[in-house]
User: Fold these one by one.
Assistant:
Number 1:
Amino acid sequence: MKPKRIQVIIVGGVAAGPKTAARLRRLNPDAEITLIERGKVLSYAGCGMPYFVGGDVPEWKKLTDMPAEMVRDGVFSQDVKGIKVLDRSPAVLAKMRLKH
């Protein structure tokens, strides 16, 4: 049975957001997925930040590299995963009135 085409907005692009988007893409290849991140860096290893601060990781960009030397950024997300990324875009919750 083919999954229903859905539209999903994920807020947050550090670790859990991109991981959720990638998993959703595998479960539903036809889903329209948009990831919103306030900053400009996506999918970095936040748990590795102490190693960067301590000097064990010489460049912060190494926290965004995958083992195959590919950088997980908005271009990678769009081109490889088919996930639209809105970086440098704060998510704002607005009150909406729904008509029934």
Number 2:
Amino acid sequence: MNSTQPFDHDKPKPSRRQIVKTGVAAGIAAWLSAGKFPAILHADDKAGDKPPILGEGDHKFEWLGDWAKRPADKPWGNTHAVQETADGRIFVHHTGPESMHVYDPDGKFIEAWGKEYHGNAHGMDLRKENGEEVLYLAPTGMHKVFKTDLKGNVLLTLDFPKDAKNKKGDPCYADAKPYVPTFTAFAPNGDFYVTDGYGAGYIHHYNIKGEYLSTFGGKGNADDETACPHGIFCDTRDPAKPMIVVADREHHRLQYFTLDGKLDHLVVNANGENENGRLRRPCHFSQRGTEMVIPDLRGRVTILDKDNNVIVQLGDNPDAGQRANNGVKQADTTPGHFCCPHGATWDSHGNIFVAEWLPYGRFTKLQRLA
């Protein structure tokens, strides 16, 4: 907790024992007799409560659920995505009235914008182009992708790909309605890729100017077909062979494609196991060095090594009924346990920020300890 912040009654409150230790015990009786002692002590208060510690070995994290100091008049909706800029600011994309919140590196609120994405906000990805950082937004209900600067000014609007054809040579879309983009990935050469995750299941390839190049994927159960290609990322952990990795969420797997859209390999669970293997319902990706973090909608966050073996799984919710459940009440959430991780990113210090698909918004910093 930042000691410069004003007292917040939603934060942990001092116990009687702690008050005594501060040397103000002599004043307690007078305050109580005068009826002026603040009503902050309760029977269920626990002295010495500390944030949960997640992980093991070199991957231990402290759960900071109150990191973002969100103003009371700036409500969240479903918190969907998070990115860190080069100067350490944290951008949180959500479905509330002002769909983009910006925080400084200490969690202090800076500004909000994005009223036009209210109710539709979803995917958000960031890269640098011509020396400037830009955001690619995929608001699902708008059937478009927008490139903006960090103030929300639109630099490019990408409509549905009218020229896209599937592997049979048939048009992918008759109109914009079936096109429901979810996230964007960026190749080293400047090209980018958009997943039609909630629509027809295609992945569309564009050059840096936003000119359509090709399409692959599409709904189906073959190895190169998808069932909700929700997230997408350019995996550069092998710098000699950058590849496009797709979070094929409802197939409970990752698909690896070459940059020209040819299937290379799959990452699946052993024996088709969906609950206790690497992947339940993978949503998206963030890379740091040779490690990849994956927010998994079914109640946990997974870190994979360069060979996509599990290093650690964080915040695994023991209550299966809360996993991927958008209806979990805020009062029923538990520090240390995720319900619906939807977006996650490493920051420059090796911490992880997690945005959960919950209607009141749930945003957590996992502060690295080791």
